[in-house]
Amino acid sequence: GRTAALIPAAGSGTRLGRGPKAFVEVGGISLLARSVAALAPLVDEVLVALPAGMDLPPGLPARAVEGGDTRQQSVARLLAATGADVVLVHDAARPFLPGAVVGALLEAVAETGAATVALPVADTLVRGEGGLRVEDVPREDLWAVQTPQAFRRELLLRAHAQARAQGVAATDDAGLVARLGFPVRLVPGDARLFKVTAPGDLALAEALTRVWDA
Ligand code: C5P
Question: Where is this site: Transition state stabilizer (predicted)?
Protein backbone atom coordinates (compact mmCIF):
# COMPACT_ATOMS: atom_id res chain seq x y z
CA GLY A 1 0.00 0.00 0.00
CA ARG A 2 0.94 3.65 -0.14
CA THR A 3 2.74 5.37 2.72
CA ALA A 4 2.59 9.08 3.55
CA ALA A 5 4.84 10.97 5.94
CA LEU A 6 2.91 13.58 7.96
CA ILE A 7 5.05 16.29 9.53
CA PRO A 8 3.41 18.59 12.08
CA ALA A 9 5.50 21.76 11.79
CA ALA A 10 2.96 24.40 12.77
CA GLY A 11 4.27 25.12 16.27
CA SER A 12 5.20 28.66 17.23
CA GLY A 13 8.47 27.71 18.92
CA THR A 14 7.74 29.86 21.97
CA ARG A 15 10.17 28.00 24.26
CA LEU A 16 12.94 28.30 21.69
CA GLY A 17 12.35 32.02 21.12
CA ARG A 18 13.52 32.01 17.49
CA GLY A 19 10.23 32.26 15.56
CA PRO A 20 8.37 29.23 14.10
CA LYS A 21 10.60 26.36 15.16
CA ALA A 22 10.45 24.31 11.95
CA PHE A 23 12.15 27.17 10.10
CA VAL A 24 15.04 27.50 12.53
CA GLU A 25 18.29 26.36 10.92
CA VAL A 26 21.02 24.17 12.35
CA GLY A 27 24.17 23.73 10.32
CA GLY A 28 22.57 26.02 7.70
CA ILE A 29 19.56 23.74 7.06
CA SER A 30 16.11 24.19 8.64
CA LEU A 31 14.72 21.59 11.04
CA LEU A 32 11.86 21.07 8.58
CA ALA A 33 14.12 20.57 5.55
CA ARG A 34 16.11 17.99 7.51
CA SER A 35 13.01 15.94 8.38
CA VAL A 36 11.65 16.16 4.82
CA ALA A 37 14.99 15.10 3.34
CA ALA A 38 15.17 12.09 5.69
CA LEU A 39 11.64 10.91 4.87
CA ALA A 40 11.03 11.75 1.20
CA PRO A 41 13.13 8.87 -0.20
CA LEU A 42 11.36 6.33 2.06
CA VAL A 43 7.66 7.15 1.48
CA ASP A 44 5.28 7.90 -1.41
CA GLU A 45 4.40 11.45 -0.32
CA VAL A 46 5.29 14.00 2.37
CA LEU A 47 2.72 16.38 3.86
CA VAL A 48 3.68 19.23 6.17
CA ALA A 49 1.40 21.25 8.49
CA LEU A 50 2.62 24.85 8.56
CA PRO A 51 1.66 27.90 10.62
CA ALA A 52 -1.14 29.92 8.93
CA GLY A 53 0.23 32.27 6.32
CA MET A 54 3.54 30.47 5.88
CA ASP A 55 4.67 28.64 2.76
CA LEU A 56 6.97 25.69 2.21
CA PRO A 57 10.49 26.77 1.38
CA PRO A 58 11.10 26.30 -2.36
CA GLY A 59 12.44 22.95 -3.51
CA LEU A 60 11.16 20.76 -0.66
CA PRO A 61 9.54 17.57 -2.05
CA ALA A 62 6.40 17.99 0.08
CA ARG A 63 2.84 19.34 0.09
CA ALA A 64 1.71 21.97 2.62
CA VAL A 65 -1.45 21.94 4.76
CA GLU A 66 -2.45 24.71 7.18
CA GLY A 67 -1.84 23.59 10.77
CA GLY A 68 -4.23 23.93 13.71
CA ASP A 69 -4.08 25.46 17.19
CA THR A 70 -2.63 22.30 18.72
CA ARG A 71 -0.34 19.53 17.50
CA GLN A 72 -3.28 17.14 17.61
CA GLN A 73 -5.32 19.42 15.33
CA SER A 74 -2.39 19.80 12.96
CA VAL A 75 -2.09 16.00 12.68
CA ALA A 76 -5.86 15.68 12.14
CA ARG A 77 -5.62 18.11 9.22
CA LEU A 78 -2.68 16.21 7.74
CA LEU A 79 -4.63 12.95 8.06
CA ALA A 80 -7.59 14.45 6.24
CA ALA A 81 -5.32 15.45 3.36
CA THR A 82 -3.99 11.98 2.45
CA GLY A 83 -5.48 8.72 1.24
CA ALA A 84 -2.38 6.64 1.98
CA ASP A 85 -2.85 3.23 3.63
CA VAL A 86 -0.08 3.84 6.17
CA VAL A 87 0.86 7.19 7.71
CA LEU A 88 4.11 7.97 9.47
CA VAL A 89 3.85 10.98 11.80
CA HIS A 90 7.10 12.78 12.58
CA ASP A 91 7.76 16.03 14.48
CA ALA A 92 9.69 18.64 12.52
CA ALA A 93 11.35 19.37 15.85
CA ARG A 94 13.32 16.06 15.64
CA PRO A 95 15.63 16.77 12.70
CA PHE A 96 18.05 13.84 13.01
CA LEU A 97 16.13 10.80 11.76
CA PRO A 98 18.18 7.68 10.91
CA GLY A 99 16.83 5.75 7.92
CA ALA A 100 17.18 2.44 9.78
CA VAL A 101 14.71 3.66 12.43
CA VAL A 102 12.12 4.39 9.73
CA GLY A 103 12.70 0.92 8.26
CA ALA A 104 12.16 -0.80 11.61
CA LEU A 105 9.05 1.27 12.27
CA LEU A 106 7.48 0.42 8.90
CA GLU A 107 8.13 -3.29 9.50
CA ALA A 108 6.43 -3.05 12.91
CA VAL A 109 3.38 -1.19 11.63
CA ALA A 110 2.85 -3.83 8.95
CA GLU A 111 2.40 -6.34 11.78
CA THR A 112 0.43 -4.44 14.41
CA GLY A 113 -1.12 -1.43 12.68
CA ALA A 114 0.42 0.99 15.19
CA ALA A 115 4.01 1.52 16.30
CA THR A 116 6.12 4.22 17.86
CA VAL A 117 9.79 4.81 18.25
CA ALA A 118 10.77 5.02 21.95
CA LEU A 119 13.89 4.89 24.11
CA PRO A 120 14.26 2.81 27.29
CA VAL A 121 14.78 5.30 30.12
CA ALA A 122 18.42 5.37 31.27
CA ASP A 123 18.27 7.92 34.10
CA THR A 124 17.02 7.30 37.63
CA LEU A 125 13.46 8.58 37.84
CA VAL A 126 11.84 10.28 40.83
CA ARG A 127 8.71 12.28 41.51
CA GLY A 128 9.35 15.76 42.85
CA GLU A 129 7.12 18.03 44.94
CA GLY A 130 8.03 21.62 45.69
CA GLY A 131 11.56 20.98 44.48
CA LEU A 132 12.07 17.99 46.77
CA ARG A 133 12.54 14.36 45.86
CA VAL A 134 9.53 12.61 47.32
CA GLU A 135 9.31 9.24 45.63
CA ASP A 136 11.44 6.93 43.49
CA VAL A 137 9.83 5.70 40.28
CA PRO A 138 11.12 2.29 39.07
CA ARG A 139 12.46 2.82 35.59
CA GLU A 140 12.21 -0.81 34.44
CA ASP A 141 9.57 -1.02 31.74
CA LEU A 142 9.61 2.76 31.23
CA TRP A 143 10.21 4.19 27.77
CA ALA A 144 10.54 7.77 26.55
CA VAL A 145 8.31 8.09 23.51
CA GLN A 146 9.69 9.82 20.43
CA THR A 147 8.59 10.19 16.85
CA PRO A 148 8.29 8.90 14.15
CA GLN A 149 5.13 6.92 14.84
CA ALA A 150 3.35 4.86 12.18
CA PHE A 151 -0.25 3.72 11.83
CA ARG A 152 -2.69 2.23 9.43
CA ARG A 153 -4.44 5.45 8.44
CA GLU A 154 -7.94 4.12 9.21
CA LEU A 155 -6.86 3.33 12.78
CA LEU A 156 -5.38 6.78 13.43
CA LEU A 157 -8.49 8.41 11.91
CA ARG A 158 -10.66 6.47 14.39
CA ALA A 159 -8.37 7.42 17.27
CA HIS A 160 -8.54 11.11 16.39
CA ALA A 161 -12.32 10.97 15.89
CA GLN A 162 -12.78 9.41 19.34
CA ALA A 163 -10.45 11.94 20.94
CA ARG A 164 -12.41 14.81 19.36
CA ALA A 165 -15.74 13.33 20.45
CA GLN A 166 -14.51 12.85 24.02
CA GLY A 167 -12.58 16.12 24.22
CA VAL A 168 -9.39 14.20 24.95
CA ALA A 169 -5.95 15.69 24.31
CA ALA A 170 -2.74 13.69 24.06
CA THR A 171 0.81 14.78 23.39
CA ASP A 172 1.29 12.04 20.80
CA ASP A 173 -0.75 10.04 18.32
CA ALA A 174 0.19 6.60 19.62
CA GLY A 175 -1.40 7.67 22.92
CA LEU A 176 -4.72 8.21 21.17
CA VAL A 177 -4.51 4.78 19.53
CA ALA A 178 -3.62 3.09 22.85
CA ARG A 179 -6.67 4.80 24.36
CA LEU A 180 -8.80 3.08 21.71
CA GLY A 181 -7.52 -0.22 23.11
CA PHE A 182 -5.23 -1.15 20.22
CA PRO A 183 -1.70 -2.46 20.79
CA VAL A 184 1.11 -0.05 19.96
CA ARG A 185 4.47 -1.69 19.21
CA LEU A 186 7.52 -0.03 20.80
CA VAL A 187 10.42 0.19 18.36
CA PRO A 188 13.84 1.04 19.84
CA GLY A 189 14.58 4.68 19.06
CA ASP A 190 17.75 6.70 18.90
CA ALA A 191 19.24 9.36 21.16
CA ARG A 192 19.77 11.54 18.08
CA LEU A 193 15.97 11.76 17.75
CA PHE A 194 15.79 14.16 20.71
CA LYS A 195 13.27 16.99 20.32
CA VAL A 196 14.65 20.48 19.85
CA THR A 197 12.62 22.39 22.44
CA ALA A 198 14.72 24.76 24.56
CA PRO A 199 17.67 26.97 23.50
CA GLY A 200 20.14 24.44 24.94
CA ASP A 201 18.79 21.78 22.58
CA LEU A 202 19.66 24.05 19.68
CA ALA A 203 23.30 24.14 20.73
CA LEU A 204 23.28 20.33 20.90
CA ALA A 205 21.66 20.11 17.46
CA GLU A 206 24.17 22.55 16.01
CA ALA A 207 27.01 20.42 17.36
CA LEU A 208 25.44 17.19 16.03
CA THR A 209 25.22 18.59 12.48
CA ARG A 210 29.00 18.52 12.31
CA VAL A 211 28.97 14.73 12.63
CA TRP A 212 25.63 14.10 10.88
CA ASP A 213 26.37 16.19 7.78
CA ALA A 214 29.98 15.04 7.42
O1 C5P B 1 5.65 22.10 20.89
P2 C5P B 1 6.24 20.77 20.58
O3 C5P B 1 7.73 20.80 20.41
O4 C5P B 1 5.78 19.66 21.47
O5 C5P B 1 5.66 20.40 19.15
C6 C5P B 1 5.88 19.15 18.57
C7 C5P B 1 5.66 19.27 17.06
O8 C5P B 1 4.30 19.62 16.80
C9 C5P B 1 6.53 20.36 16.42
O10 C5P B 1 7.12 19.85 15.23
C11 C5P B 1 5.53 21.49 16.15
O12 C5P B 1 5.85 22.27 15.01
C13 C5P B 1 4.23 20.72 15.92
N14 C5P B 1 3.02 21.52 16.20
C15 C5P B 1 2.05 21.69 15.20
N16 C5P B 1 0.93 22.46 15.44
C17 C5P B 1 0.76 23.07 16.63
C18 C5P B 1 1.72 22.89 17.67
C19 C5P B 1 2.84 22.11 17.42
O20 C5P B 1 2.20 21.17 14.08
N21 C5P B 1 -0.32 23.84 16.81
Answer: 15, 21
CA of 7 to the centre of ligand 1 (A): 9
CB crowding 78-88: b at 16 or more within 10 Å, else e: bbebbebebbb
DSSP 42: G
Query: Alpha-carbon distance 99 to 69, whole Å?
Result: 30
Pocket test for ligand 1, best of 71, 78, 97, 147 (most atoms within 8 A of CB): 71
Report the nearest atom of ligand 1 relative to the CA of 196: 3
* CA pseudo-torsion sign 70, 73, 79, 82: negative
- What pTM does this model have? 0.96
Structure confidence by residue, pLDDT tens digits, 59-91? 999 999 999 999 999 999 999 999 999 999 999
Burial of 95 (0-12, 13-18, 19+ CB in 10 A): buried
Q: Is the CB of 54 within 6 Å of ligand 1?
A: no
49 lines ligand 1 (CB under 6 A): yes
The atom of ligand 1 lying closest to the CA of 93 is 10
